[in-house]
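I have been asked to look over a protein record a colleague put together. The record follows directly below this note.
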Amino acid sequence: MEDNPPPSSDSPETTPVKRNRRRDNRVAAMQFLYSWEIQRHGDMVTGLFDFFQNREQPREYYSFAEELIQGVIRDLALIDEVIAKYTQNWAFSRIARVDLAILRIAIFELMRRTDIPPVVSINEAIDIAKEYSTEESKRFVNGILDSYKEELRRDPRRAEG
């Protein structure tokens, strides 16, 4: 019988995965907005309570997600107007619901969260699209967000306050 030494403390098997809280929150917000788009909750408080009760982390962990969700829903008409403006030759109703949720979050961040550099919001949206949507989605999401970024007249690599 051959003895295998235990993995060193630097090996990938024992290195804990570092959680990216903001990414977790963006994904949670995307998942909520996706489900909300399919079946609009009559009572947002109950909808959010039910959603966060089934999450891996306690609800407090998702405070950024709640801010994104509330902001997107509050500014939905304006956000959808921006998305429609940049979806050339594509009917708004044909946008995949996952992509729509991702775009809504990123547009909200670009519009209202000047404390986050635009490239961060865009890169996060593209990464989430890569993981949760189709191969084509990352280009679609990037195209819309990059076009909108030009309209903002902000330094794309800097936060503002």
The chain has one domain: 21-152. Residues 1-16 have pLDDT under 50 and may be disordered.
